[in-house]
Amino acid sequence: MIEAAVQESTPGEETLLELSLGPHHPSTHGVFRMDIVLDGERVVKLKPVFGYLHRNHEKIGESSSYLASMPYTDRLDYMCSLTNNWAYALAVEKLAGVQVPERAEYIRVITAELTRLQNHASTIGFLLQEMGASGTPLMYAFREREIILDLFEALTGSRMMCNYMRFGGCRVDLPAGWLEQVGKVVREFPRFLDEFANLLSDNEILLARTQGIGVVSKELAIQGGITGPILRAAGVNYDIRKVDRYGIYERFDFRVPLGEHGDVYDRYMIRMLEMRESLKILEQALRDIPGGPIMDSKTKIRGFRPKAGEAYGRIESPKGELGFYLISDGTANPYRYRVRPPSLINLTILEDMCLGSNVADVIVIFGTIDIVLGEVDR
Amino acid sequence: MAETADQFFVILQHWLVGHVPASLQGVLSAVLSVVAILGVFASLFAITTVLERKGLGRMQNRYGPNRVGPFGFLQPLADGIKSLTKEDIVPQSADKVVHFLAPVVLVLAAFSLYAVLPIGRNMVLADLDAGVLFFFAVSSVMELTIFMAGWSSRNRYSLLGGMRAIAQMISYEVPLILTTVTVIMAAGSLSTVTIVEKQAGYTGIVPHWFVFTPWGFAGFVLFMIAALAESNRSPFDLPEGESEIIAGYYVEYSGFKFALFFLGEYLGMFAISGLGITLFLGGWGAPLPFLAWVPSYLWFFVKLLAIIFFFIWVRGTLPRLRMDQLMNFAWKFMLPMALMNLVTAGVWHFLPHGVLRWLVCGLLVVVPYVVLGRGLMQDSKLGKRVYRFAE
Amino acid sequence: MLGEGIAKGLVETARNFFGSYSNKDRLTTVQFPEERLPQMEATRDFPFLVYDGSDWQSGLRCVACQICEKECPPKCIYIEKSKDKKPDFVGKPQFYPAVFNIDVSVCMSCQICVEVCPFEAIKMDTEFELSTDDRFGGLLWDKARLARPNEHYRQIHPTDAAVSDAILAEEKAKAEAKAKAATEAKANPTPANVPQAGSGGTATQ
To answer: What does pTM read for this prediction?
Structure first.
């Protein structure tokens, strides 16, 4: 709950108010605490406190086999399980030197872009809910997200904990009619984006509450190691899909939107524009997907023992750069298993973003960083 | 026939009062009217809670409550039973008398506001000569109770929330009263009955309601925005919706007192909408001359429901304003507009009827709106943006 | 002009409000539990053991190889091998699980046990309304609770069951061909042929 303590000070000094936005809070995206010190209306100091959801993911990874860690990666950033799976599979494939057949690569791209769509929709829905629009944009966003989650269930068997990628490809092939349903989503999603733009992108109240708030400069973003939409909203052209060209992303024609001011409105609009780019990628992938095997025939499912070595595999997840660093010592379990969580690294500049703002803006700024506690605490 | 239907409740009241000796007739007549007001507006509150949840639900592509009773209309009964059975917690260091009195006085004041609203022809509880003045005086008591609630809880946060609520309500009183002054100028009286009577009559099929004049239209819009702010509703619900960050002024209330706060707020909302209807929308008058056979009290409630639906519609669409933006809006936009409106109303009164009057007054309304609006947006450097793509 | 964006937003909401009465797209609620959406074929909830025929004890396909127990990420499967053997669907004597427990409150429905089972013995069920108020054993399922007939598997996952049946039929055909070759070799003994102990016993189905 929300507690407040007042530091009684000697007369003549200002009284600073210490506020603890506790772990039970409707707007903190999970169990997360912020210790804020206020001077009247302005934020003077802000300390994020997390760790409430720590589940020993990395330690469990050291005692499980490589295959057994795959379902656990679903639960890291629980909104985007398929991209987590891909990042881990990429790291292991680099470690073991495994090739992936072409159809599997296309399926990976399709599922990753669908994941990006539903994540960004949910993020902007929650952002507007926290600004007080009493749930209407949230309901519209979730209406679209449900359709995509149904697609995931038809393919992988589960809406959110997909456990779909394997080292060397994908677990099962596409069911009949799945690609047609994805085509339907690609055709109808722009209607939702246009509705959303009509509903809110010109709204004076929204502009007043988001423009000029929570500014992140280019230098701060680069020094803080920030990645993802926040970095691009600050104006830095860095999208891992273009830089690393992992998978088959170089075959697709899509643009990277960049912001100028780095404020909350820019981050909101960058996510809207990225959704449109994802739709373009989906269209091209649906057109070009070939037939063929979906799994590398030489890789074993059980008893998978990569040679000793280390590898770092990273992808552009919807939240930023998600990376897995694996050290193998030749046995069935990895020696060291490390996750680079984008949510945690993006949180490090929360204080810099919020200094000098009102308390009411802290929640809005926090919503645009788009964190998921499963990833922050692992 | 239409006359009887229209005066049905008046005739009923006279008949009931006739059974009592002459010395008690006045008292009984007043008691009957009070009971009627309590019954009607309390059930309107119950219906509005369901309508709001179902309306918001439909706007959000879902059903609202639909399990309790037919189409969910017995939901307020369930909510009432729930709030009655909760434990009534009073903080130990709270000021007990004031803490108890705040919701009670709120509801009392809210109910007293209905005394001067003419609900139908010859259907006003107290035909005061200074009805509008009485209304504003009592609504200030409602603001005071919010401060009582915030202060007596002995919680820094409810105090802060209460002070913000007071600041908001006081700032929005000014445009509210200034727009009312234009109506008083046009009608020449502070009595609500006279104001409604001045709006009777039709030119062709257009009624003589004040909202169909340039100053009346601008005044109505300003009055409605100020009414939203006075009843602490979205997009001005920062004092109460601030429970995302700071719990509002009624954080220390639980159970039935909490329900009383909601009752008081909704009643205040109905009363201020009722005043808006009386001042601008012709009270109980029919909008078209050939619809005058419908009883007058039905027209009042139809207009009231229309305004309530508008409030629900706005709540479902707009995010909330921050405190300083709220105050900016009141003092830098609404106050100058209200003052200009006063000038416009005066010019309207003194120019002869005709196109010239409409043209001059129309310009006097539109030009300040555009200029002030642009100033407000440019002041904070807000505007549309164009995004570039890499390479 | 001030208010334009707000007006556009209000129009959008009104469109949704009136649309919810006429357009199915704008009222997407499904009134559970009276209305239910049809379940997807690929849905996975919790495992079950497949048995062929009508007697679950003798028809159970599981041979207690304990591969699923080793591969299960949260280690929710507990198997105790039997001491004796019983014939399987091709007649070969195999061990069977004396105890096969799955702690469903630990199981995370990842389906790895299904993937690694070489005997098509464990598959994923689609039942999810499983709440119980027995805190201490209600969600610890034993062999009897877990066993379901092959007809049930064909009903809930038709395509997967067809694939599974085809694999088993192929194995059975291979085993029968091998048995036939061995009996033929026995019937015509040549010095090159070493008589084998035939595995041509009747299959207990």
So the answer is: 0.87
